[in-house]
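Problem 12. The chain below contains 310 residues. Write out its predicted structure in token notation.
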Amino acid sequence: MKKNPVISVCMITYGHENYIREAIEGVLMQECNFEVELIIANDCSPDNTDLIIQEILQNHPKKSWIKYFRHEKNLRMMPNFIFALGECSGNYVAICEGDDYWTDPLKLQKQVEFLDANPDFVIHSANAVELSKDLNNTGKPILKGEIDKVFTLRDFLSHNNIITCTVMFRNVICEFPESFKEVKFGDWFFYLILMHNTQSKTYRSTELFSVYRIHEGGVMSNLTKLDYYNTHIFQIISIYNYLGNKTLYPKNDHLLNDFFIKKFRLILKEDMYFESLKTFVTNFKYCGFKMPFKKYLSALKYNYLQKGHE
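Solution.
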């Protein structure tokens, strides 16, 4: 009789035919003294991702670890992630998207031992090597000159402090806010939800566990500048609305202001005056008199002078 897994590995994939084999093999090489399941959710990939997964399911000696789901219709990234999480039955969940991969065969063992011994932590993470699209992998860690750190929820209000392909967390989330389904990338928001729900901490080790891949098919790589700003604005506002208690969780107005003013400058340059006004009003709605009025005036002045010289 098969035991329930201690670990579920959550792997979402879309269009990863060039990377998925390495991602799966990085999981199946893990050396553990507990049961592991690998949940793969293929979001109707238009390439040969499915064929590669099927070949592994036929031939790999650890194929029994894999539970494979192939959607006939594209769900989008975050609904697919939520679907995959719903299939994870382990006490802990580790994340490895289909274009990243693990390099330490003891990654899962080390993380389980840490979380078992430290019940006041909900997330364990580590360091990774960045691999660029031109394959210029120098082996240098993303986190340089860092020491092991402990983070609370407040530390995540301004930015994401951990690297997703290194993360393991307690399998405790049952439902998500509606806005979470609409974000373009949800790792930062997700960690806040985990820490907020459990009132627990996050640990980040300096050990190298993974390779984080940057390529043209990545979610962020395909965004225009305007989409990039809108994506961040939407996620930050969604986080503020989710956390709710502004006294307990003060807003990071500096971060939100920064994306609003960048968006304002960009669309003003394109003569999108109505959208520019909407951006200004929305910025005021969320940040009030903490918004950068002088920067808006400077942007208007600069745009006026530039147009005057044409």
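Discussion. The domain at 7-220 is CATH 3.90.550.10 (Spore Coat Polysaccharide Biosynthesis Protein SpsA; Chain A). Students who got a different answer should revisit the alignment rule from Section 12.3.
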